[in-house]
Design brief:
The protein contains no helices and 2 strands. With 41 residues, it is mainly β.
Length: 41
Amino acid sequence: MVATDAAVIGNELTVVSREGEMSATVVERPFFDPKKQLASV
């Protein structure tokens, strides 16, 4: 979750998770990556 005052398109954030800190950028929803390949079953 992101505070509403930080949820500005293009805003750069630091996300803290169990894996550690990482950079993130607020983008419009829905985010779609046409180059992403899904795993084959």
